[in-house]
Amino acid sequence: MSTNTRPILLNCEMVRAILEGRKTQTRRVATNVYYDSQYRAKWKAVCKHTEVSIDTPGAMLGDVCPYGQPGDRLWVRETWADASYDDGLCICYRADKERKDVTSNFAATFGRLKYANWAPDLESGAEGRWKPSIHMPRWASRITLEITNVRVERLQDISEADAKAEGVIGEKEAAGAGLAWYDKPRRAFQFLWQSINGPDSWEANPWVWVIEFKRIPQEATS
Fold first, then answer.
1. Which of 2, 130, 160, 221 has the smallest number of Cβ neighbours within 10 A?
2. Alpha carbon of 61 to those of 203, 207, 209: distances in Å?
3. Mean pLDDT across the stretch 109-132?
4. In angstroms, rounded to a whole number, what is the distance separating the alpha carbons of residues 120 and 37?
5. What pLDDT, on a 0 to 100 scale, did the predictor assign at position 41?
6. Whole-prediction pTM value?
7. Is the pLDDT of residue 137 over 70?
């Protein structure tokens, strides 16, 4: 069975959570879920000519999930920039300022990138411009995820354990890291969701796709 690969956008905070091993789930608004009393769950997920009840196991639900099914892979698009440093060329990642040396790929990439940024100035914020995640090409991505399960649920049904799996941290962890704190991971996730989707997005309580994943070492993706 072939493995499908799709891009997925993640902000800097969530990229750091993946790199630190804290994030193994992501939630996205389900725009293809509709009410239908003929189904046992009263709601169905639809993709082209396929319809399934939303309580269908993940292996079959993946047929209508826009992000894929268990076994498929997601390559992460994040905020980045092409840059130069000393005598080399590199890709910089804003989440943690890591550099990926692409000097050996110069002939293949020079025509597409200008390398106008000076890496240290870019990283310090002194000068340069970061590129939006949507513009990251596949070859520049450093994170690949394998989907382990998919399901559909209401946004507010997220548990404390799942909120932690989303990469948020609770009061004790935040205090130790010198960060702002919230009462519990679920509440922290609520603030995170609202910061991305708008102040009324939590109260709207939409259906969401829950995508569970594990990170794949880059050497295993080639």
1. 2
2. 26, 14, 10
3. 81
4. 59
5. 84
6. 0.86
7. yes
21: exposed, middle or buried (Cβ count in 10 Å: 0-12, 13-18, 19+): exposed
Dihedral angle sign, alpha carbons of residues 70, 72, 73, 74: negative
**DSSP letter, residue 23:** B
Burial of 201 (0-12, 13-18, 19+ CB in 10 A): middle
Q: Measure the CA–CA gap between 100 and 75, rounded to whole angstroms.
A: 16
The rounded distance, in Å, linking the Cα atoms of 143 and 134 is 15
Give dist(CA 144, CA 219) in Å, integer. Answer: 10
pLDDT in tens, 8-57: 999 999 999 999 999 999 999 999 999 898 887 889 999 888 898 998 88
pLDDT at 209 over 80: yes
113-122 long-range contacts (CB < 8 A, ≥24 apart) are 113/82, 114/82, 115/82, 115/83, 115/84, 115/89, 116/82, 117/81, 117/82, 117/83, 117/84, 117/92, 118/83, 118/84, 118/85, 119/83, 119/84, 119/85, 119/90, 119/92, 120/85, 122/81, 122/83, 122/92
Overall residue count recorded for the chain in this entry: 222
Q: What is the mean pLDDT of residues 206-210?
A: 96
Tell me the one-letter amino acid at 51. E
Place of tokens 């009393």: 37
- For residue 153, the one-letter residue type is E
Distance of alpha carbon 136 from alpha carbon 121, whole angstroms = 20
| Mode of pairing for the β-strands spanning 5-9 and 73-77 | parallel
